[in-house]
Amino acid sequence: MGFDAGTQSVKVAVYDGNFQPVATRSLPTTLRYPHPGWVEMDADNYVAVTLECMKGVVDDLRAAGRDPANIASVMGDGIICGIVGIDREGRAVTPYINYLDSRTTDDVEALNARGLEIWGRETGNPEASPMFPAMFARWFLRKHEGFREKGVKFVHNAPYILMHLAGLAAEDAFIDWGAMSGWGLGYDVKEKRWSPEQLEILGIDPAYMPRILKPWDRVGGLSEAVARETGLPAGIPILAGAGDTMQSMLGSGIFEANQGVDVAGTCAMFCVSTDGIVPELSKPGMGLVFNSGTLPDTYFYWGFVRTGGLALRWFKDHVCREEGNGDYYRELSEGAAKVPAGSRGVLFLPYLTGGNGDEKDASGCFLNMTMDDDQFVMWRAVLEAIGYDYIGLADNYRKAGVDLTRITVTEGGSRDDLWNQIKSDMLEANIVRFKNPGGAVLTNCIFGAWATGGLGGEAEDPAPLREALAAAITPSGAFEPDAARSRAYRELYEMRRSLVAVDMKAAFAKLVRMRDVH
Question: Which residues form the Carbohydrate kinase FGGY C-terminal domain (predicted)?
């Protein structure tokens, strides 16, 4: 059994010994926006939704004549940039804050103004970012009364769920060595340990940090209470889990350096695998994040559009008023396919929770619309918006020597053929899609089989794991760039870059001030 605890939903699935899906359930999560730039979630809601999905999967297994007692392990993945504070019993005493939140922007700017080089040397991330859990931890310690009174540990959302499945308290809190690098600051990425010097600079007591485990380490067994609630037998091995991006990359067949992946989820992430820190990509101002992978000695950089996939859901739900109608994505793309590349000059800026770096004041908006434009033009502009940000990232990767002639696309957005073709044209690269676009859950199940001896081979030898992953991956689509559209997108990109970075800078600052006028 595997689960993926994402931003917009939790998915739970069981695969058989041939890694074919047997039962799957998914439920939405809830996001709150208490202040402009703030995004909060409820860690206990994650647990409740996961348990409900697990119970549904058990019901489906029994209906299919399968015995839930045959489940060999449970492994989950979750968001790498997000934390919650817990008390001694392991209960949440803070909201869960993730990468969509911008409340730490002022603190980030003050920390970056110090120009400390230890960040880049030990983490590969030369600058702090408002999305880093290290900055959320500083905020909790300074401004959250509940954490200052009762908080004893910080954990990510997947470990929080896994701790509750195993009935663990704060003294057993953990994080795997890949998700650890989601903290952005505070650790040594090569040594896989918390950095005393960095934590001292950050003002975070090491006692608040969870222990670091391998993703496939066993943390306990399914508790009696959870067994009663879900219908599963108690004692099923619970594994330490992993980060969602790390698992999505492995599920896309990325086992070697210099390969590209577009993780088309809530946060649109454009990743490249590397052998380690690449100095050209770890320079201040690059806007990239460096992480370690799930397997030993694997690393990757990623750039992002924080509200990439979320912008698509926002447009469907709140502009088109089609909340709950997942099929409407297909209708929108069918109409947008008839709109020429460039959306007749209409632009969408996808910064619905704010921008980054020099463009931190940027906000979401449509530009250049006329009476001739409809929701299909707007939809194509939304799809193209993520591609424009990706062009800048691709330029930086290529300058550093990373070959991007082929890019694998994964997660929910990969199902949209129009979006894949737009990205192929904009990035001047071949786009490949596999049949398992939500590959993180399958990857978790393959890890679960490996960790419990189901794949054979020597203990800790990842060869059988890689073989099983490669066998489970089957291409289901390929998209090639059109030279004429690529030229048009490059011209439009140069104009858009100047428009956002130069022409609209003062306008964005004024728009931010207008929010406070009542």
Answer: 263-451
Tell me, what's the pLDDT at 436?
A: 63
Beta-ladder partners of 17: none
**Is the CA virtual torsion 299, 300, 301, 307 positive or negative?**
negative
Q: Is 480 exposed, middle or buried (0-12, 13-18, 19+ CB in 10 A)?
A: exposed
Residue 32 corresponds to which tokens in the numbers above? 């709150």
Compute the distance between CA of residue 348 and CA of residue 500 in angstroms, rounded to an integer.
11
Task: Please name the fold of domain 310-392+483-516.
Answer: Nucleotidyltransferase; domain 5 (3.30.420)
Beta-carbon contacts of 229 under 8 Å, excluding residues fewer than 6 positions away, are 51, 55
122-144 pLDDT, tens per residue? Answer: 999 999 999 999 999 999 999 99
Q: What is the pLDDT of residue 361?
A: 85
> In the chain, which residues have pLDDT < 50?
438
The confidence score (pLDDT) of residue 270 equals 86
Q: Cα 226 vs. chain centroid, distance in angstroms?
A: 27
| DSSP assignments along 80-103, one per residue | SSEEEEE-TTS-B-S-EEETT--T
Q: Which CATH architecture has domain 2-247?
A: 2-Layer Sandwich (3.30)
Helix orientation angle between 417-427 and 375-399, rounded to the nearest 10 degrees: 40
| Strand 193-194 with 187-188, pairing | antiparallel
Q: What type of residue sits at position 432? A: V
Burial, 287: exposed, middle or buried (Cβ in 10 Å; 0-12, 13-18, 19+)?
middle
Tell me the C-alpha to C-alpha distance, in Å, between residue 388 and each of 62, 373, 377, 411, 494: 48, 20, 16, 20, 9
